[in-house]
Amino acid sequence: EYWFAAYDVEDDEALIVHLPEPMDGVYWGAQLFDVWLRSHDFRSHQSTLNSAYATQNGDGGIRFILTRRDPGYANWIDTCGFTKGQLLIRNYRSSAAANPTVTRVPYADLAKHLPDDMVLLTPDERAAALATRLAAYTRRHGE
């Protein structure tokens, strides 16, 4: 199953994509594209997340945060400087359709709109996650 949407988020805003129920498929992932459907730089930016890397909230839901600046949350999806683009959520062999809601909030107020159990990363942890991403890309593509 696919869920597809356009996004428009300014530098002083964040979009919270909330999946109220966990996706139980074999695989699921969320990926950003530009307006021409070219993927953002997933090699050195966290412009994608999938079932292996995203964290779930205590309420059973999953929340992604789309913004250009790193807000420190594990489930951040980097817009890579694009204010407009497209978001694709793939949910392979799931028992139910993805039914996300999207909320636009001021970047400065982001924490007020998130549950207290959102996983935060230190700058060193973010750097390590990006290094792991680049190493995985290099293993797969040999570049």
- What oligomeric state do these chains adopt? single chain
The main sheet orders its strands as 1-7-3-4
**Nearest-angstrom radius of gyration?**
14 Å
Classification by helices and strands: mainly beta
Total number of helices? 1
Order of helical and strand elements: EEEEEEEEH
Low-confidence runs (pLDDT<50, min 5 residues)?
none
Structural write-up:
- This protein is mainly beta and about 140 residues long.
- About 15% of the residues lie in helices and about 35% in strands.
- The chain has 1 helix and 8 strands.
- The protein has one helix spanning about 125-140, and strands at about 1-10, 15-20, 25-35, 50, 60-65, 75-80, 85-90, 100-105.
- The strands form 2 sheets. Strands 1-7-3-4 form a 4-stranded antiparallel beta sheet, with no helix packed on it. It has a 4-stranded mixed beta sheet with strand order 6-5-2-8, with no helix packed on it.
- The protein starts with a strand and ends with a helix.
- The model has no long low-confidence stretch (mean pLDDT about 90).
